[in-house]
Amino acid sequence: MSDPEELAERVRDGELRLYELEEHADHATAAAARRHLLAEETGADVEPLSEEALDLAGAEANIENAVGTAEVPMGVAGPLPVAGGAADGEYYLPLATTEGALVASVNRGAAAIRDAGGADARVTDRGMTRAPVFRVEGVVEASEVVEWVGENEDRLREAAESTTNHGELLGVEPYVVGDSVFLRFAYDTKDAMGMNMATIATGEACELVEAETPADLVALSGNLCTDKKPAAINAVEGRGRTVTADVFLSADLVAERLNTTPDAIAEANVRKNLVGSAKAGSLGFNAHAANVVAAAFLATGQDEAQVVEGANAITTMDAREEGLYASVSLASLEVGTVGGGTRLPTQSAALDVLGLAGGGDPPGSNADALAEVIAAGTLAGELSLLAALASRHLASAHAELGR
User: Fold this and answer.
1) Known catalytic residue at 153
2) pLDDT value at residue 239
3) Tens digit of pLDDT for each residue in 63-94?
4) Are residues 116 and 138 in the same domain?
5) Is 179 annotated in the active site?
6) What pTM, to 2 d.p., does this model score?
7) Which residue, 17, 79, 260, 288, is the most exposed by fewest CB within 10 angstroms?
8) Which residues contact 342 (CB under 8 A, 6 or more apart)?
9) CA–CA separation, 97 vs 381, rounded Å?
């Protein structure tokens, strides 16, 4: 059967389920049938969804109930010179966004960084976490579990690492809340973002905990990880990659490229990003780090929901005698260059533009480099926006660009 309308009618009649269409037609026809059903049921114009370059057969691991693709414009900012622990060179940073003026703003910051000789960047910590929660009778049993974990980390490591050829268990940190015991497992997942890897490995380790202690597993994720939610633990302990980028710009360069002064940018940063964020109870002390992180995530196939953790960043601006010191520190940037959405055609091409597609040599170096480049791009965005605010040009810049 290859008629989309007939397939849609069978779904409407309850003869077929929406997810079963690929069993009765090829991927393109199944998607067309879903589009037809959506158009009939909602009255929406779904034709733009058919303008796809993505082979849906190759995206089965990334999407269910496929109807087509959502197109997001992609631009690049750069070249952006980055001297990192893994990144080394000039990079064009792909950014996929629907927010007008964002790429232009990052590009302006990148130009200032380029004129300053480039940004330094370093991944200072790495560790993808998963934190299961166990039930115990009370604090006595909780203490027994914590003691056992401390004495048997090697056994937990052996169990966890038996599930993966690449992941390494870095450590296990216990937390007790009444009759709940949380064990926060942290892994070096090399070039993979590693959430699935950490989950599978932790599941194996949990079986050992249950076999050897009074603890009963309640949930493989107990939200102390913490994944895709604002969390102070990620700001303090980190998750994924903890990465910092900084640059020094002369006063003349700040005036020429950013149309303001080091003192004005530093004051705007303190009053907006530090005092304002503190008053708001924010977990991110930055101007718009999530803007750049989100656009880079969409372009390179990262898990877009983890932008929540990517926004967990602190921006500092220090007016010095010779100019401006600027930095951004992202405590929990979760990125990878293998697996997940990185395998999709446009996302793989974006990583290829960066020269960071696939696994690195040594393992983990490509993901480290990607984190460092995104951090430098975020720094460019922070510089540009703070300069626009300090010079009172933000509204006029958007008006000029027609946004």
Assistant:
1) no
2) 97
3) 888 888 888 888 889 899 999 999 999 998 99
4) no
5) no
6) 0.89
7) 17
8) 300, 301, 302, 336, 348, 351, 357
9) 14
